[in-house]
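Protocol step 4 of 6.
Sequence for XRE family transcriptional regulator of biofilm formation (Paenibacillus harenae) entered exactly as in the expression construct, tag removed. Do not edit the line below.
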Amino acid sequence: MNLIGERIQSIRKNKQLSLSELSERAGIAKSYLSSIERGIQSNPSIQFLEKIGGVLGISVEEFLQEDSPQSSAKDQITQEWILLVKEAMDSGVSKEEFKQFLDSVKMNNRRN
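Step 5 output, structure tokens:
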């Protein structure tokens, strides 16, 4: 199974990048990227994933995650948190105010 290569290719295509564009922006050989995507090469280095991830906006951890019902649930939770933070920002809550709120909750949790 070539999950990493498939994931790279899928994200690259979703971002409408050609193989050449991604390899150039990431500073890696086009032939190596192609071989990873096609499953000819496997187990790319962390450095490779960092370079590709930097261009695609994906963390190394996201490349390595397996798709499962559990990860889908985590993605759903993550999306809910993102929406909650966005709603707070849209309503005028500053980053500092949000941080103070979190610190307050942490202190209350320690007391209980």
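Step 6, annotate. The longest helix spans residues 69-90.
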